Fold:
Amino acid sequence: MPAARSTPEVLSCPAKLFLTGEYAALWGGPALVAAVPARGFGLELAPVSGSRHVHAFAPGSPAARLIERAGTLSEGRALEFRFRDPWAGRGGWGASTAQFLLARAALALAVAAPARAVETICFKSPSDGADCGENQTNCFSPASDLGMAEVLRAWREYRWCVSAQPRARFSEWVAAGAPTVPAAWLPSGADVCAQAAGGVIRFELDASGDARVERAGRASFESSGARLLMFSATGQAGRKVVTHEHLASLAGLGDPTQAPSPAARISVAARVCLTAWGAGPEAFGRAAGAFARTLAEQGLEHEAARADREAFERLPGVLGAKGCGALLADAFWVLARDEAAARAALELARERGLEPVSGLAP
Structure:
């Protein structure tokens, strides 16, 4: 049995940014999501007396639910979880999903013996001969650079932690009368996948309701000298959206499989962005702008985010601009043609109260 730890350990997790695909990802449509290592989240683990882990995560949050499943521990195995948020709670950069991933890694470090993982949920596919939700041991193992199989395992566990229906599909929710959150509008978990995998990922759900995650690779425009600038927007007064309350209002978008419903139009616009990601800076900028305007047509772009987008679109050398997150209000990115355009965009951002953030993961 390993010796109990006497000094704190620190785990880290990148932030995230939806480049495109907000809302579409909720019902399984495609999204491009980036891990942002600048100002990453941290979790300090310190030994604590007692038989249960100690944490300050919100009751009912995915991280809290995961820790509660650890149950009673043997003496010397309990830890205190101290979350570090460099964004000071301003939101929009994946704090809740970072808490979940960090707690998951911490539980793997806190096992009673090397061969036995903390009891958790097994999310094998039906073809593996196991039902979702079956209690298992050794369901995950810690890794600093997660392979895609482990990323998907983390995603399935996250979906269970936010709802007992990890494989529920949007069409099934509509057929059931679109019940309220969390059963109807689960967080997509695309951010979990990006933060676990690193880099930029392509995310969508397959026909079974399971996630399909691929690395998007470096965008073709990186070699052209174009610059992708990221900004925090929540410093602007009145801009932060309460995500879970907002999700509860979305049933009116209709079934995304039935054109020409608003949801179907959003999904089509999101898929165009996936193709444009590898087609050059002008193509991606146009596609992202069209996606933002599609959301605006459905009342899904915050007034301040729209004003910012239109201001940057008028700036010479800006190829695209878009808000991110719920109502596109949490963060903002700008695609500049060259260094001169990037400098002009940074100046305009300062005038508009947007805080620069650097460090898009490769």
